[in-house]
TrEMBL record:
It comes from Nitrosomonas oligotropha. Keywords: Signal. InterPro entries: Ice-binding_C. It comes from the Bacteria. The keyword Signal applies. Residues 1-19 form the signal peptide. Residues 360-380 form the Ice-binding protein C-terminal domain. This is PEP-CTERM sorting domain-containing protein.
Length: 390
């Protein structure tokens, strides 16, 4: 059962790339007749200073025009249609650049400032409601960053806080590292790996190997890990009851620096697709590791030779750290190299979007916030190799 030798690794790393230049394709949306065009305001000085924190500069290119009354005041779904369009769709896309559409406003979503793919190519900005840091924020989504948890202390000062809670700078002098240090983008990253390793998840206690690498962000622990097999059309087959008649239960393999008593498991049910592991405070930190396994099957191949690491790559993985920062994405689209690379997702299309909703902000206090990058490495015994996107 399931005799495929594959390794899949989700890697979150500590290092930044050297300075990178990112090409932007700026598209101004007008009506069908080429009139009533949405204003284009790049807020270039703000965008440049915000992303200078990560050593990233921009080539803004020239402005092109898209004549489409439909997209001049799009709904959120129509904005997603723009973001999901391909190079041949006539929406103004070009190869080798992140595509940015300026529209007049979002129909049915007053006050919404922008919409961006997470770990993919495409941003829609509302000219009528955008803040000075909206473009920088939405590009953060394109570079693979999700929203921070809105309930953490001082959340509003971070670039990847949702627009409803983010404190907007009134001048470039208040952008980090200066003044009020707004639109802060923290380059201190933990280094955690979540590997799917081995020939089969059946009768396995080490198919998943989770490591918080030594020397990485020693003052913060992992709070929870969630695996959702739904996008892969797969399920946990932990008993011999239907839908799978030949399963194996959840079991731990090795535990280093953490005990089973520190881990609360929820959501795991026979035929279900969600597993969540909550870690006790400060129990899973730098240098710790654990392995675990259980049977997993594809609904299209129950009790067959399915659920290989490669077949599970569309599963959704969510990692949350003790400061409240959480990143989630399907394994096929949230692919970050071990060094931050803002050009990783140029010409990549994904259905994942930044959620515009956010939780209320508590009383402010100082906190360090993690910025995470994700990578997928797929290989066989001849050696692992990087896997490119779709």
């Amino acid at each position: 059962m399931k005799h495929v030798l594959t390794m899949l690794a989700l890697v979150l790393s500590v290092s930044w790339a050297s300075a990178e230049t990112v090409n932007l394709n700026i598209i101004q949306v007008c009506d069908d007749g080429g009139n009533s065009c949405a204003p284009v305001n790049l807020n270039q000085s703000f965008t440049d200073k915000i992303w200078a924190q990560a050593g990233t500069t921009f080539n803004y290119g020239s402005i092109t025009q898209l004549n489409s009354t439909k997209f001049l005041n799009p709904t959120e779904l129509e904005a997603d249609e723009l973001i999901g369009s391909n190079i041949f769709s006539g929406t103004g896309r070009v190869f080798g650049s992140y595509d940015v559409w300026f529209v007049n406003s979002f129909n049915g979503a007053p006050g919404l400032r922008g919409r961006g793919a997470v770990g993919g190519d495409g941003v829609v900005v509302s000219s009528s409601s955008a803040a000075v840091d909206t473009l920088a924020h939405e590009l953060g989504h394109n570079f693979g960053q999700d929203h921070i948890n809105g309930t953490i202390a001082d959340a509003g000062r971070y670039l990847m806080a949702a627009g409803s809670i983010r404190t907007i700078p009134t001048g470039i002098g208040d952008i980090a590292p200066d003044g009020l240090q707004l639109d802060y983008f923290n380059p201190i990253l933990p280094e955690v790996t979540v590997d799917m390793v081995g020939a089969t998840p059946f009768l396995s206690s080490d198919f998943f190997d989770v490591k918080f690498l030594a020397g990485a962000a020693t003052d913060l622990g992992l709070s929870s890990l969630t695996i959702d097999l739904t996008p892969a059309n797969a399920f946990f087959d932990v008993t011999n009851a239907p839908p799978g008649l030949s399963g194996s239960p959840f079991s731990f393999g090795s535990l280093h620096g953490i005990s089973a008593a520190d881990i609360a498991i929820s959501g795991l049910s026979d035929g279900g697709s969600i597993l969540k592991m909550d870690f006790a405070a400060d129990s899973f930190t730098s240098g710790d590791s654990l392995s675990f396994g259980m049977d997993m099957d594809l609904f299209s191949n129950i009790d067959g030779f399915g659920a290989t690491a490669d077949e599970l790559r569309s599963s959704l993985v969510t990692l949350t750290f003790e400061d409240g920062y959480s990143v989630a994405g399907d394994l096929s689209t949230l692919i970050f190299s071990s060094v931050f690379d803002p050009n990783k997702y140029v010409d990549v299309f994904t259905s994942r979007r930044g959620d515009p909703l956010a939780s209320p902000v508590p009383e402010p206090s100082s906190i360090w916030l993690l910025s995470l990058g994700l990578a997928i490495i797929i290989g066989a015994f001849r050696g692992a190799k990087a896997r490119s996107l779709e």
